[in-house]
Automatic annotation (TrEMBL), chain B:
This is Phosphate ABC transporter ATP-binding protein PstB. Keywords: ATP-binding, Nucleotide-binding, Translocase, Transport. Signal peptide: none annotated. SMART domains: AAA. Residues 5-247 form the ABC transporter domain. InterPro entries: AAA+_ATPase (IPR003593), ABC_transporter-like_ATP-bd (IPR003439), ABC_transporter-like_CS (IPR017871), P-loop_NTPase (IPR027417), PstB-like (IPR005670). It holds the Pfam family ABC_tran. It comes from Micromonospora coerulea. One of its GO terms (molecular function) is ATP binding. The gene is pstB.
Amino acid sequence: MSSLVTSHRTRPPAQPATLRAKRLPRYAAPVIAVAALLVAAGVVYGLGIGGPVLVVVLGALLYLAGLFTAANAVEGRRAARNRTWSALIHSAFVLAVLPLASVVWTLVSKGAERLDGDFFGTSMNNIGARDANGGAYHAIIGTLEQVGIATLITVPLGVLCAIYIVEYGRGRFAFAIRFFVDVMTGIPSIVTGLFVLAFWVLIVSPWFNDGQPGFSGFAAALALSVLMLPTVVRSTEEMLRLVPAPLREGAYALGVPKWKTILRVVLPTALPGIVTGIMLAIARAAGETAPVLLVAGGGAAINFNPFENNQSSLALFVYQQAGEASKYSPARAWTAALTLVALVLVLTIAAKLLARRNRLGR
Amino acid sequence: MAKRIEATNVSAYYGAFKAIENINLTVEPKTVTALIGPSGCGKSTFLRSINRMHEVLPGARVEGSLTIDNQDIYDRDVDVTAVRRMIGMVFQRPNPFPTMSIFENVVAGLRLNGVRKKSILEETAEKALRSANLWDEVKDRLGKPGAGLSGGQQQRLCIARTIAVEPQVVLMDEPCSALDPISTLAIEDLMFQLKDKFTIIIVTHNMQQAARVSDRTAFFSIEKTGDPGRLIEYDNTQKIFSNPSVKKTEDYITGRFG
């Protein structure tokens, strides 16, 4: 035994005599918070250097300092650090939620003004600057059709691409695909819009449009699918990698061929995550303005046909109405923005529910 | 139903690393053969080369000849899924399919290979679950997920899933290492019953288990880390555990080494 305790430097810290330690009283934290805010308010308004925002910021800093000092004096250093970091993490959460809450509140409060049947039932056709009515029916149709077509193109392509990378791809080719998918993630939407404008609208579509460049919702869908593809591929890839190898081996050991293992065991296991990735991609595509402006051209009238003539979309509608010289257009823009967010939200919830229904209840 | 397995000069590689070297071994039908030996000696690798699961890993390959009733399973024109249907496998950790119910798990092998008729599936499921001594515990909740069972039940579910496709040979890779003693006992009992129909090869670290369940025992070992594993001794279990002919085997089973 004696040899174990000869080395003083490596000896662990002494065991405390008791498990109990002094704690700050429960009311300490709120009292410090109130005091910090009061002091901050006194300083800020006393010196006349700012408003309520500065009071909150300064108060938060004072609160952290006060909490650390008090805890350090009573509870010791470790507990003081713990309290400070907990407070910091909580404030980080509040900071992250604040903009979100603010956006939702702004959208709802300003978008409510034109939330009427007229908005959802009419287009902007023949609506002048002095007309208070007019709506986004054409834009909603455009968004639904363009995003729908883009999803139909992207999901099979992206999921199959991810399956290739994870399950089949070996060596340089798979590596190259992964690399270029990563590069695609960084392409600005305006560039994909220009790409489709140059390639599809100006070169391909004249062949079946009497030599005229054909702006269309479908061209917008193409541009959106270029934007969605990397998100779908990467998220699906990550989800497929999370499926444990023993599951695949379990299926192989039953004599199940590889393609069937992927289809019936691997994909269902990864499905909820894949759906989340697809919904992220759809949400991003639904909010894009630039490519739609470039290749679908916008337009005030209802056009159900995505393959011919101009189409608008909600994002483009927001952009155009926000810049319109009419006192009625800002309200339309806000309501369209609210509609867009609600649409994406509803789609996301629906997709999550569908993906969950596929799983078994306990 | 059961078939004889013959390994001749079998070596297996992970890329450039040789994991086992020149294994020669014959497994008789309707017997239980235990593979024992220290960690890293290639028991599992050998087991996985018997149903061509070894080659699933990138860079892995097998040399030599492995035959099942004189048919080389590594022949060029052999369908690997047919081999695996004939030689089933139970893994170390229970791996029921998480998206499937208990019933779907048991019939997964049939269903994924194209059997659709409900009556056949139900009949097979009940038979397999009864053989795996699991029927009474799950018959009222066949629609519930397989992942909700206890570890021991999950492993018996995996055994039921394996025998539902009616293989000739069942390979078990440390099937009890993640289980408590009672579940282990249930699975050992099960092996006794399954022996009537199947040839069983089991890898185990538990020497009492090898002594309890097996008819023949193969002892694998390595010289030192990085060397390929070799078959040191292969004999009747009773002989191996009472009077082994190689000193190294004796050292291992008496606990002086490994």
